[in-house]
Design a protein that fits this description.
Elements: E1 5-6, E2 9-10, E3 17-22, E4 27-32, E5 41-47, E6 53-59
Antiparallel strand pairs: 1-2, 3-4, 5-6
Length: 66
C-alpha cells in the first residue's frame, strides 16, 4: 500500500499521477495518464473524519482492439 496523494499534494515520483480539485463540489480526483497494466488494482479514497470513512475502487485494465 502506498499513499499517492493527500488533497492536491502528490507523494509519488511517477509523473503520470496527478490530483485535480473541484472547489465547487469540494471534490478531489486522482488522475492517471498513460495507464499501464501494472496500475491495475484497488485504490482507496479516504476522508479524515472521526471515524475515518473509506471508499475502495477497483481499477481493471483492458486492452483496446485494433
Amino acid at each position: 500500500m502506498q499513499i499517492l496523494s493527500v488533497g492536491g499534494q502528490i507523494f509519488t515520483s511517477d509523473s503520470r499521477f496527478s490530483s485535480l480539485h473541484s472547489e465547487d463540489e469540494g471534490r478531489f480526483t486522482l488522475v492517471i495518464t498513460r495507464v499501464r497494466p501494472s496500475d491495475q488494482g484497488t485504490y482507496e479514497c479516504q476522508i479524515s473524519t472521526k471515524p475515518t470513512k473509506s471508499l475502495f475502487i477497483n481499477l481493471f485494465i483492458t486492452s483496446e482492439s485494433e
